[in-house]
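A.,

Following up on our hallway conversation. Structure tokens first:
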């Protein structure tokens, strides 16, 4: 029950506008992840940026199990398996990739352009499902949660990531 594993990998693209550019980004994300992205809506209107409330301005794909592991390895290869220590939190790590063409296996299409994206990884232990399930929901105890140190150790030992100290 103490084994740590990758629960999910969330891939996020914040485009900031809807229309043709968002559709091009959706094609790029679908090519990168092999999944159809879900559109994320603006929470409030910002007149200076030309954003209206409820307008789609971003994309999100959540990967789990083997898909998550394979995508994470490709995304880490884009950053040379190096992450900053500040990127780690209790059971979570996040990092960004400036250009999607840095990911191995992706190709540049001039018609689509270049997009950056963020990757958020969540680690868990067996039994974490009790806090998310619909029936008989319960909290996970403090001793069973994944700590920041365990997250760093998992990425160093299991995945082989080099951590940059402050």
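Then the amino acids I'd put at each of the 166 positions:
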């Amino acid at each position: 029950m103490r084994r740590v594993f990758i629960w999910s990998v969330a891939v996020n693209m914040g485009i900031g506008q809807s229309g043709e550019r968002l559709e091009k980004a959706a094609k790029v994300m679908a090519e990168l992840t092999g999944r159809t992205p879900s559109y994320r809506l603006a929470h409030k209107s910002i007149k200076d940026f030309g954003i209206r409330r409820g307008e789609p301005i971003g994309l999100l794909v959540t990967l789990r199990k083997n898909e998550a592991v394979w995508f994470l390895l490709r995304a880490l290869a884009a950053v040379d398996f190096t992450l900053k220590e500040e990127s780690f939190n209790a059971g979570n790590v996040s990092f960004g990739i400036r250009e999607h063409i840095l990911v191995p296996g992706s190709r540049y299409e001039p018609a689509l352009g270049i997009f950056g994206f963020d990757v958020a990884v969540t680690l868990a232990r067996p039994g974490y499902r009790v806090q998310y399930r619909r029936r008989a929901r319960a909290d996970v105890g403090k001793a069973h949660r994944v700590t920041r140190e365990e997250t760093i150790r998992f990425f160093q030992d299991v995945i082989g990531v080099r951590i940059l100290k402050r």
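The CA atoms of residues 30 and 36 lie 5 Å apart. Curious whether your intuition agrees with the design.

B.
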